[in-house]
Write the structure tokens for this entry.
Amino acid sequence: MSEIPTRASAVVIGAGIVGNSLVHHLALLGWRDIVLVDKGPLPNPGGSTGHASNFIFPIEYSRLMYDLTRDSTEQYKALGVFTESGGFEVARTEARMQELRRRVTKCKAWGIPAELVTPEEVRKRVPYLEPSVILGGAYYPTVGVVDSLRAGTLMRERAQASGALTVVSGAEVLDIATEAERVTGIVTTKGEIATGNVVICCGVWSSKVAALAGARLALTPVVHQMISVGPIGLFAGTTGEISYPIVRDVDEGMYERQHGGDMEVGSYMHRPIIVPPETIPANEEAVLSPTELPFTADDFDPQLAASLDLMPELLGDEKAGIRYAINGLISMTPDGYPLLGETPEVKGLWTASASWIKEGPGCGRAVAELMSGKVPSVDVHEADVARFYPSSRTTGFARARAAEAFNKMYGIVHPAEQYESLRPLRTGPLYGRTRDLGAVCYETARWERPHWYATNERLLEKYAGRLMDRPAEWDSRWWSPVINAEHLALRDGAGLVDLSAFTILDVTGPGALAGLQRLAVAQLDVPVGRSVYTPFLNEAGRFVADLTIMRLGAGSFRVVTGAADGGRDAKWISDRLPDNARLADVSSAWATIGLWGPRSADILDAVNRDGDSRPPDTFGMTGLFELGGAVVLGSRISYVGEYGWELHVPAEQAGYLWDLLLDAGGPHGLVPVGIGVYGTTARLEKGYRAFGAELTPEYDPVEAGMTRPRVKAEAFIGKEAYLAARTAPPAALLCTLTVDSHACADGTPRYMLGGEPVLTLDGARLVDAYGRPSCVTSAGSGPSVSRHLLMAYLPAGLAEPGTPLLVEYLGEQYPVTVASRGAVFDPSGSRMR
Amino acid sequence: MDILVCVKRVPTVGGVITLTADQRAIDTRASGFTISPHEECAVEEAVRLAERFGGSVTVVTLGSTAAEEQLRACLALGASAAVLIETADGVETGPIATAAALASVAAIGFDLVLLGNEASDTGDYQVGIRLAHLLGRPVATGIKSISVAGDESSLAASRVYRGTLETYPLPLPCVVTVKEGINLPRYPSLPGRLRAKRASVRRVPLDVPAAVRDVVMTRLRVPDAPAKQATVLGHGPDAVPALVAVLGEIGVLP
């Protein structure tokens, strides 16, 4: 037994696939004196890795999950623990056939081999599958299985062999010591270790361990039931672990996967079973392992029947028994993504948790890179643990969303799918008013944001013929033609937009300017009263944020960013501010109302009462002015391409101002306008980029078409890379494309929703010099230009207006044309000035 | 032949057992439930006999409605009928009451009544004998082999006791308690599990004379874990001589 070290550069808690991968990558990155701690025995300490079904389907809609899976698969292959088996997803319904077409199209975007197949073609490779049960399938030849325990052991042993790692098993972590919100060490049953870095890779126990340091993780253990049936006569003659393709019976939420002489059958369709982490048995108490809980057969019985339908002879063999059956524990987060990075609460407290086997090594690598101050080789910003605000880090929320999402694991989930549990939670001061107007709210970071207003249905008649209605149910799900009517009404008269969900961060102090200058590409040393729109870049010169900063005073800046990004942005800023500047999140204190449209000046005039002052009129200016007897911080900027203001008001006065404007604006054609216009239609017509869609750590400002004429003299993060990018020819350029024909094979017009691959005229996949595929980053109506608009990065040679291309949507190809690298509506911007 | 198998719902436990606060039960919050290993063998033996000679296998248990889970597990293994003698939640019956209740079901229609030698939780070793006594039938206990005569009028029950094979001829009807090792129980098949799901479980109320004076368990105690017996002989090649010596001592090496 080795002695437990008293000091470590980092203590990694949890020797599952993620913890093992993490210590391996830390060692590769030059870390020494790493300690890996687990309460269980090695090589299988009893976490979810130990009972995983260990198969990998490469297809994911999310770029993050696709990339993590790809990276992880490459790592498994390099370790020699990957076996290719091929895999099918089979469809029992027409809706699923469309979904499989969508998935195969996504495979084309990523460059994953995939094809649609007939039931008979499935049976050729899976002779025990009953073809009459299915309508067809999708075949993914590169699906495979891994030995995750072996992979973890190999990675751990390599780190040990390099002298970088000490492994301590059988040591439970009792406490994580902190001082002034910074990690100082851990206390285990085998002793204490002083360290500045603790990484929680504890899978289903992660939230419990994080709580020791005062941090909360939005993660909950849930049950995934699995049985193993054998001996299967057909498998008796096969060698190795797997000889037949894995079948995902997605309509039944199940998979069937050969494992030696047995068939493993797993399900995501049983009732959601949430398990509080404090009730997970200790290793010694567990019958099998702590995460292999007793099987509750009643929950699984309906799944048995479904699997028998699909594989009647093989699974119906009376001689094959259910030899193993578990309620296996896995981790779920509210958005289905892992939790990676440093926690927002405690410096030096990191996590790499809520990862599946297929993402584990990628998660380990990414967090090791983050801990080393490097830009991660896979863009993991969507998995940043800081993305969840405190309101989203509650146990109740994690459980409610896990319960709601569990049965959607293999579900047909729309890109705009809305979740229902525990809503509404975050409502701005205008919520009651917008609800009375029939607001249909979508949720962002638990905020309710009106996407359109039912009371605007009256506009449908007025704008009939210009609404670009979508006859296909899938295209129109979570969409309404009212959005396009609101769009036209805003361009004709004016729109009032509830933007209360903005994250508003005040950065103040003598060091505020210097601190923010180091982050922003744009010059922030501007006169008080200027609004500056700027990206933040990482060290590689790629986007990490995109926001507006108002200079309110010499040492006072107000940062306005999106609700979805505010958590990450706040941490990015506060981590990098000097000691003499501080950041305060004042989002709850301020509401934002957008007033835009050609009549917005008239509306302000109408509201103006005796004693009021004039709003800032020069574009880009910000200032306090008096309106209707209230004080308003007005900013002459626009994200919709129209004249008008972003009006920031103290939350308690927002209702007053909203009423005032809506009443006075009626005669000028003012209507309430939802985020459907603000975030999509008006934005796309103007070619404005959105963080997370067009602006991601995959691209730089040159490629995004966001270079400024001059580069400021002051240093900022990413400046060297930015300067280099300005002088080199870009590999890709962001373009807006118009769809030339919407007719699908049966003549129904179809409307892309985003994420689709852009193809050459002969249907070939487009990839730039860095291997980045051209995909639709945003899609939506352009009602003022009567075109469906798509944005996409195209290889530089094709990024010329007029270039004809194709876009594939649900398995069919549609002609598109590059329209612009800027705005397709009012390209000169005259309407805004 | 028609066989009745008596089973009991017991918790599955890991290496360490935790007790409830009143120390009168095992904490089963994280446990699953099963039947005792001896009983699994009794069910298997009954199913094999029925497969060979025809007839039926009925399983019976005393317990709350939760015990239906165990009855259905037995049905999935091939039992053809199930009876739940229903007790109120949390009521534990002692061996006298249990045997009396089982006797009411076992009295009519069964050629053979099989039990596990003892339950894996309470280990009373009494119910089979008491049941046979109430039924006025012969009983053999601790049995590891059953051989039924071709005319189904008798069986030979065998066990090894202190190195000696004992065989008892018993006329049918009779009672036999079996021990693990008599057979290797099968796993439930998928069709078996689905049949069990659809099968009906006959429920009968528990009818015990009020005056039964039964043994009552008052308190459980989990003994301290024994001290670890492992001795580190050494590391790497240096450990080989010590290892060889130990293997020689215990007779593994000549």
